[in-house]
Design goal:
This protein is an alpha/beta fold and 245 residues long. The protein is 26% helix and 33% strand. The chain has a seven-stranded mixed beta sheet with strand order 5-2-1-6-7-9-8. The radius of gyration is 17 Å and the shape is globular.
C-alpha cells in the first residue's frame, strides 16, 4: 500500500469527467442510469435537505478530489476548505477556483481518448483547497459547522483514524454528511481495518459514531464512474446526515 494510487493522468481525467463532465459525455447511452449522474452535488444538497446556515459558517470537505462538492458547499457556507490526498487533484481544483478552464482527456476505447474541458464553477463562498491526509489531519482543524466526506472511508488505510477525528472536527450541534458504498478492498484498506465488511458495515458504522453523533437522515445515493464508453462503475452509496451531540 505504498505510494499514492491517485496520481495518474488517466485517473485525473476520470475524476474531472465525474465531477465536471456533461451528462452525455459521462453516459452516451439514452437507456443508461441517469439517476446516478451529478453525484458530487447530490451528496451535499440531497443530504442537507434545505438546512440553512449563517454566512459566517464554515465547512470542511475531506476527500474532495477535484473539488466539485466543495464548490457546491460554497453556495451555503462562507468558508469552505477542501482537502484531498492527491496533489494532482488539488492542483486541478485550485486552477478551477482561480477561474481557469482545464483541458483533459478521458478514455473512449482501447488507446483512443476524447478531449474535454472542465469549466470553472461560480464560487460564491471563500473556497480553498489543500493537500492533506484524512487519517492524519492537522490538529488545528476543528469546530466546523459541517463536515462532508463522500466515498472516502473505504479508501483509507485506517478509516478509524479519520472517524476518531470527527468529534473534534464537527462542533456541537453541527452536521456530518457521510456517503459510502462500503467498497472494502485490501489494496486500499487491510481487512483487519474494515468497518464491518461481513454484511454489517452500516450497523458497525452506526455503533462507532453513536457516542458523538445522532443519525438524522439516510438515503441511498447511486453514482456512476465511467471507465470507457462501454464500461462503467455503478455503485450505491449509503448517504447519511448526522448531528453532533
Amino acid at each position: 500500500m505504498s505510494g499514492n494510487p491517485y496520481e495518474s493522468d488517466k485517473l485525473l481525467g476520470e475524476y474531472l469527467l465525474f465531477h465536471y463532465g456533461r451528462n452525455d459525455e459521462i453516459l452516451p447511452w439514452a437507456n443508461g442510469p441517469v439517476d446516478a449522474l451529478r453525484f458530487t452535488g447530490r451528496t451535499v444538497e440531497s443530504l442537507m435537505k434545505k438546512q440553512s446556515f449563517e454566512q459566517s459558517s464554515k465547512a470542511l470537505d475531506v476527500g474532495c478530489a477535484v473539488g466539485a462538492s466543495s464548490f457546491v458547499l460554497g453556495k451555503y457556507f462562507g468558508d469552505v476548505l477542501g482537502i484531498d490526498y492527491s496533489k494532482s487533484f488539488i492542483d486541478a481544483a485550485n486552477l478551477l477556483r482561480e477561474g481557469k478552464s482545464l483541458e483533459y482527456s478521458y478514455l473512449e476505447e482501447g488507446s483512443c481518448y476524447a478531449d474535454a474541458k472542465a469549466v470553472p464553477t461560480h464560487c460564491q463562498g471563500a473556497v480553498s483547497f489543500q493537500v492533506g491526509d484524512a487519517t492524519n489531519l492537522d490538529e488545528e482543524l476543528s469546530g466546523f459547522d459541517l463536515v462532508h466526506a463522500a466515498n472516502l472511508i473505504c479508501r483509507l488505510p485506517t478509516p478509524e483514524a479519520f472517524l476518531n477525528r470527527l468529534p473534534h472536527l464537527v462542533k456541537q450541534g453541527g452536521y456530518l454528511l457521510l456517503a459510502t458504498p462500503f467498497t472494502w478492498l485490501e489494496e486500499f484498506t487491510p481487512r483487519t481495518k474494515w468497518i464491518g465488511g461481513a454484511g454489517d458495515s452500516k450497523e458497525k458504522l452506526k455503533e462507532f459514531l453513536s457516542p458523538w453523533f445522532s443519525l438524522e437522515y439516510e438515503e441511498d445515493l447511486p453514482f456512476l464512474i465511467r471507465e470507457h464508453r462501454r464500461k462503467f462503475q455503478y455503485s450505491v452509496a449509503w448517504g447519511t446526515r448526522w448531528r453532533r451531540i
